[in-house]
Fold this sequence. Notes:
Elements: H1 3-30, H2 36-39, H3 41-46, H4 52-77, H5 82-100, H6 106-120, H7 123-134, H8 137-148, H9 150-169, H10 173-192, H11 205-208, H12 221-226, H13 232-261, H14 267-295, H15 301-320, H16 325-354, H17 360-388, E1 391-393, E2 396-398, H18 402-420
Antiparallel strand pairs: 1-2
Amino acid sequence: MTASTADVKATFRKHQIRVMLAITFGYGLIYTCRLGLNIVKKPLLDNGIFTLEELGLIGAALYFGYASGKLVNGFAADHFNPRVFFSVSILVSAILNLFMGWSSLLWLSVALWAMNGWFQGMAAPSAVISIANWFSIHQRGRVYGTWSASHAIGEGLTYYVMAAAVSAWGWRYGFITPGILCIGVAAWVYAFLKDAPQTMGLPDVHEFYDEEPEPAKEKGTWATQKVIFSIKAIWVVAIASALMYVTRYGVNSWGILYLQEIRGYTLLQAGTLMLAYGVAGIAGSIAYGFLSDNVFGARRPPANLIFAIIEVLALLVIFYGPSDYYILIIAFGVYGAALSGLIASVGGLFAVDIAPRGATGAAMGLVGVFSYLGAGTQDIVSAGLIESGSTLVDGVKVYNFDTVVIFWIATSVVSMLLAASLWNTQIRD
Length: 429
């Protein structure tokens, strides 16, 4: 090995680490700017600021904004520097959270939360393109699994640290605290994240790992991107992801309120259960990447099925099992671990594997728009189902979650079956 070759390898791997740190912590921390509403629903309801249906509208606005933003930005990200895309996403989302902390008007809150969703939709495509630029196909499951686990960092911080801030200072700090935090995060990501290796005088990732070189492009980026619309398996992944996101954001959006209203826990107790869900999600996502890459040879469907079965079983324990607090902590942990593996694959990696290179961001955008249309529709439907079963007892409104729980579990089962139908699907890279 010559000195220059050793230098290139050392430099390449150093920047791989920098990229991994930037996309993992950047994406994890931007999550705190999308989850504030989930921990302040009870004080907003108790203080008469918003009704249940209004909270459903505000929550859905974020998801619909994210769906459109992820689609548009998924296609746009293939044309632009991911470093700029990512840091702008975090900065604007942080500023919108600061404004959200001072809004008690319905349509202003809807507009702010929808714009927040749109700008949040710039982050994931930038991160995924960075992974495709810097890591080989045989590393991608592990790397993507590690990055995908980053959402659990944000969820853990939100459901415990931000919940503590809300308990101490009031509901406004569910938005103000992450807003202040993420202004600093945006600056750090801009300083730390790097563009593709070639822009730094380093070899292409295929060349660096002595892989089959990428064929010369006969089509432009847009022509390559359009190919994804003719790939049936990507559409199936998108629908499976949409249904999985119904459950994911059903629990994310309404889980704190469920634990407070039905189980009688305080905000911090409920936040601790959701913290277990978030922390275990880190291990689950990494475990998914290892299992799919090393045990199943970069085949996602077998790992998808294993994780989906575990997810459904955990949901049954959470909603129909013993009410012991410590059993619930374990159940939330198992659920978080299984769900994070599915988010890594069905929520993106599987489609990235199937899509041709040059359409990575577009594949993520298509799956993302379906996923968050599912999440947004869920928020409206869930609010309606909870409200429809609610009653007044001695002048106090009592919320009923029986029907909505069945809705959440059923969508997970259908998602599992759709993902399993792609058992023999081949990757394209």
